[in-house]
């Protein structure tokens, strides 16, 4: 059955990629099989015939479904942008998106009647509806009617989109089972309503895949630590829920066939709770495979069940053949079934069986998925096995308690909240592991996506799978490998090489919002916009220093570089930002002065195939959880300066930043005249964190700086500089107002974190 499932998968891939050529290829294989029939045994012939039939069936289904969508009446109407009345059943939960036209809602509709251009069509098609917030009330399973303009869709499974859809008119509400599932989902959310935001969002995601409120930065942390499967419906969810249900049934005396009935009812209930979308059906199938793999002869039974599940899923939904999620689910399950048992047996020779299983399962799943993850993201997670090992003890309790909180909350809300609180506490540990793991120096390893790079990672994974059981069976070798892996992931070698400060300081601190890099006499700031991603504001005078600082922060993606002005102490380090990192854009002040700095920046931008753009006053942009607003200079278009740099400082780009509830003012080297104009333009401006202008020079509009009421101030300055920076009187005045002042010349790298009572400053020295 594993071979048959693999043949069906290949047939689906061929059908999606090669079109009609796939059927020709399958036919040729059939001819070769017929010619070779006398050379093969009966069993081999039957197996070959089964593989051929399934491959042909999946390839044919892929082609026929694609043709049915492309040639449908709805697709033709969409090409002509026709306005249509559509009637159908809501088949997905409404998803809210924020677009250029405001708040919109996206929902999928299985239609059976379309009226367009005076003609009524009775048909079956899947449409994506984009409408106003009234669509948030479109319950899953309800039958509705709406009117909108049809447009072509990118999804091969979707016949068309309905844009500008009018509010839905309900014809019939959801059936009883959908209402029941909705009530349980609502009760799960209610049971954790009083918990912190991350727990409040993650418990429903863990139990039933309701991830609508999971923050983007937390999702990125989960991706970096190999815990993404916990934020979506996976086979693990079903295995935990149904496994717990079976344990309860056994405890009350249920035996034999009735256990099978209860297990099947549990699977159906789980699918209804998590929704009947392809990803949920896939997860249910993989979870069922996991149940088969339990008990005696689990490896053989699990592999057979996996083959059956893959075959049925592909025949029902051929588009899964090209789905990355499907590939990851199948490979993870296959890894657990094939690689897990020998690794577990090897570890069990010198470790307790529960601990051996806790290590072997995530190791096997992650190893099997690594090539696909590398192909998708260009990265390999080194911390995934450790992270999964740390959270595994609480995943089961969190899932069962979260579901229990929802079910019990339907009849006794206070008791449901108690269970929800316990689930939230378990989830709090998972969140901490994900956030801390994502900041580790060894969290991810960049990997190419070229055919050679992917072939190499496949070979390495196969070699590791073969060698692991042999090596791990020996106590000393296994212990050294496990301890060494943990040390590498924790970045201990890098910390030792970097000196005592890195070892004891735990740099960077988790949850950093802003880091002022110690780059000597100059500015280089990093604003975190997610795991391994940061906006860089200025680059300092030395490429090596800014590169080293960003390396320590684990920054590999820079969506935006902002250069406040073109003096050497702010732009000469720019090449270091590009070392081993992807940079999305470069923006600078519109005052093009001095010309030497402008030319140098343009050369760097040109070599990276980027265009140097000028900041526009008043423009606001959002990157992840960070919002930037350009406050200064008030130049509507680029201006060529005198070339000597005399106008550069006072025309520095000034940014107001909002991140994680903090307001930060990044001032470049703006001088008193510019500061006075900012004070006049923005009376009453209050911030949390101030980047002190011009390295703490004594030339400041002190009244304006004090009026900002900053809780913390950061001075980016070089030790023993010849300019007298920072000015002692300036620092004393800020300190006297209760501002905590940190400076790079004495404190090293400076990190600002968002605390409950405001900003919190952590230094590297």
UniProtKB/TrEMBL annotation:
Cited PANTHER family: DNA INTERNALIZATION/COMPETENCE PROTEIN COMEC/REC2, RECOMBINATION PROTEIN 2
Transmembrane segments: 20-40, 227-249, 258-274, 280-296, 303-320, 326-348, 355-376, 382-403, 415-432, 452-472, 479-498
Annotated ComEC/Rec2-related protein domain residues: 206-467
Record key words, sorted: Cell membrane, Hydrolase, Membrane, Transmembrane, Transmembrane helix
NCBIfam families per UniProt: ComEC_N-term
Predominant location category: membrane
InterPro entries: ComA-like_MBL, ComEC_N, Competence_DNA_uptake, Metallo-B-lactamas, RibonucZ/Hydroxyglut_hydro
Species of provenance: Nocardioides humilatus
UniProt lineage: Bacteria, Bacillati, Actinomycetota, Actinomycetes, Propionibacteriales
UniProt keyword annotation of NAD present: no
Name of the protein this chain belongs to: MBL fold metallo-hydrolase
GO molecular function: hydrolase activity
Keyword Membrane: yes
Gene3D superfamilies documented for this protein: Ribonuclease Z/Hydroxyacylglutathione hydrolase-like
The organism's place on the tree of life at top rank: Bacteria
One GO CC term on file: plasma membrane
């Amino acid at each position: 059955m594993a071979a048959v499932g693999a043949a069906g998968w290949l047939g689906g891939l061929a059908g999606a990629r090669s079109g009609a050529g796939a059927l020709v290829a399958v036919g040729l294989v059939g001819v070769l099989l017929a010619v070779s029939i006398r050379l093969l045994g009966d069993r081999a012939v039957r197996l070959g015939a089964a593989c051929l039939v399934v491959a042909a069936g999946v390839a044919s289904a892929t082609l026929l479904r694609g043709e049915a969508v492309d040639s449908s009446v709805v697709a033709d109407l969409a090409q002509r942008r026709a306005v249509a009345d559509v009637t159908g059943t809501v088949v997905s939960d409404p998803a809210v998106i924020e677009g250029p036209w405001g708040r919109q809602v996206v929902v999928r509709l299985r239609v059976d009647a379309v009226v367009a251009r005076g003609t009524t069509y009775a048909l079956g098609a899947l449409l994506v509806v984009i409408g106003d917030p009234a669509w948030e009330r479109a319950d899953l399973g309800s039958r509705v009617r709406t009117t909108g303009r049809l447009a072509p869709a990118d999804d091969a499974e979707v016949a068309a989109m309905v844009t500008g859809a009018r509010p839905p008119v309900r014809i019939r509400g959801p059936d009883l089972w959908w209402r029941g599932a909705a009530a349980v989902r609502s009760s799960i959310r209610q049971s954790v309503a009083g918990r912190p935001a991350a727990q409040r969002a993650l418990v429903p995601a863990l139990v039933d895949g309701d991830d609508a409120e999971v923050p983007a930065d937390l999702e990125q942390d989960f991706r970096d630590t190999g815990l993404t499967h916990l934020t979506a419906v996976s086979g693990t969810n079903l295995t935990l829920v149904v496994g717990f249900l079976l344990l309860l049934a056994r405890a009350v005396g249920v035996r034999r066939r009735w256990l099978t009935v209860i297990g099947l009812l549990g699977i159906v209930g789980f699918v209804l709770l998590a929704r009947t979308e392809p990803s949920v059906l896939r997860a249910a199938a993989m979870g069922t495979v996991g149940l088969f793999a339990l008990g005696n002869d689990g490896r053989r039974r699990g592999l057979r069940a996996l083959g059956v599940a893959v075959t049925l899923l592909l025949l029902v939904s051929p588009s899964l053949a090209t789905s990355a999620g499907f590939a990851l689910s199948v490979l993870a399950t296959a890894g657990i079934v094939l690689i897990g048992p020998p690794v577990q047996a090897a570890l069990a020779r010198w470790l307790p069986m529960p601990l051996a299983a806790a290590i072997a399962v995530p190791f096997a799943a992650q190893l099997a998925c690594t090539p696909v993850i590398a192909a998708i993201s260009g990265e390999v997670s080194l911390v995934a096995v450790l992270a999964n090992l740390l959270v595994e003890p609480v995943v089961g309790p969190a899932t069962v308690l979260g579901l229990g909180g929802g079910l019990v909350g339907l009849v006794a809300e206070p008791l449901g909240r108690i269970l929800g609180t316990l689930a939230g506490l378990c989830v709090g540990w998972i969140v901490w592991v994900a956030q801390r793991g994502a900041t580790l120096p060894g969290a991810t390893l960049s990997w190419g996506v070229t055919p050679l790079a992917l072939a190499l990672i496949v070979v390495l994974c196969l070699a590791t799978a073969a060698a692991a059981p042999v090596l791990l069976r020996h106590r000393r070798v296994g212990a050294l490998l496990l301890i060494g892996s943990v040390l590498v992931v924790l970045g201990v070698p890098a910390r030792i090489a970097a000196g005592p400060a890195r070892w004891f300081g735990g740099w960077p601190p988790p949850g950093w919002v802003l880091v002022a890099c110690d780059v000597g006499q100059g500015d280089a700031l990093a604003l975190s916009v997610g795991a391994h991603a940061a906006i860089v504001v200025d680059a300092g005078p030395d490429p090596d220093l800014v590169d080293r600082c960003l390396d320590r922060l684990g920054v590999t993606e820079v969506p935006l570089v902002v250069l406040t002005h073109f003096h050497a102490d702010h732009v000469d380090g720019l090449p270091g930002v590009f070392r081993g990192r992807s940079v999305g854009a470069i923006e600078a002040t519109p005052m093009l002065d001095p010309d030497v700095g402008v030319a140098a920046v343009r050369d760097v931008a040109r070599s990276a195939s980027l265009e140097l753009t000028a900041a526009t006053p008043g423009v606001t942009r959002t990157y992840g959880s960070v919002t930037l607003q350009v406050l200064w200079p008030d130049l509507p278009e680029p201006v060529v300066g005198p070339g000597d740099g005399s106008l550069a400082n006072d025309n520095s780009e000034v940014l107001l930043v909002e991140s994680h509830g903090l307001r930060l003012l990044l001032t470049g080297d703006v001088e008193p005249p510019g500061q006075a104009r900012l004070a006049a333009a923005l009376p009453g401006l209050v911030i949390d964190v101030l980047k002190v202008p011009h390295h703490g020079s004594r030339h400041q509009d002190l009244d304006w700086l004090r009026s900002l009421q900053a809780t913390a101030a950061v001075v980016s300055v070089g030790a023993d500089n010849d300019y007298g920076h920072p000015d002692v009187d300036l620092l004393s005045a800020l300190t006297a107002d209760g501002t905590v002042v940190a400076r790079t010349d004495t404190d090293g790298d400076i990190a600002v974190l968002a605390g409950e009572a405001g900003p919190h400053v952590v230094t590297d020295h």
